[in-house]
Structure formats: structure tokens, C-alpha cells
Amino acid sequence: MPYVTISTVRGIFDVAQKQALLQRVTDLMVEIEGQGNPDFRRNVWVKIEEGEPASWSLGGMIPTPDMIAGNFGALDAAGRRVARVKA
């Protein structure tokens, strides 16, 4: 029974992106470990762990939510990606 954990910074993925990620990782595990057997799907656990930006470091720098939003786009209250404005 495989357990897959994906760690990411909170706010990077919206709800639809998380669902797609969970589905595609599950599909991949069924294809590879389950050798394509569709019954194997019920044995695949996939978890997305989201951590606060202050708990992460990128190149020795702790990214702020604004830095992350600037690189990836922010999420609005409904969890939709807000378009980035390039200077």
C-alpha cells in the first residue's frame, strides 16, 4: 500500500489544482506500482501537506507570502489564482 506525501508552501495550489495533483499522482502509482491494475487504486494514499511560508527556505532565504504571490500569483478568498501583474 503506497503512501505519497507532497509538501508545498500554503497558497501555491488552488482547490482544483490540488484535486488534479491528487488524481494524477494516484493514476501514476496505479500505472507503475499497480502495473495498471485498476483495483490497485483503492490502496493508494496521496496527501498534500501545506506549510506556512515562514517554515520554508529557498537558497537560504525565507520567502514571504508576498514573494510567493509575486512568483506564482496569489489566491483570492475563493481559492482562485489572481493574475500576476508584471512590472
TrEMBL record:
Methyltransferase found in the keyword field: no
Alphabetized Pfam families for the sequence: Tautomerase
Claim: Oxidoreductase is one of the keywords in the record: no
Domain 4-oxalocrotonate tautomerase-like: 2-60
Domain of life, source organism: Bacteria
Family matches, as InterPro entries: 4-OT-like_dom, Tautomerase/MIF_sf
UniProtKB keywords: Isomerase
PANTHER family with a match to the protein in the record: 2-HYDROXYMUCONATE TAUTOMERASE, TAUTOMERASE-RELATED
Family per similarity comment: Belongs to the 4-oxalocrotonate tautomerase family.
Name listed for the protein in its UniProt record: Tautomerase family protein
Species for this entry: Bradyrhizobium quebecense
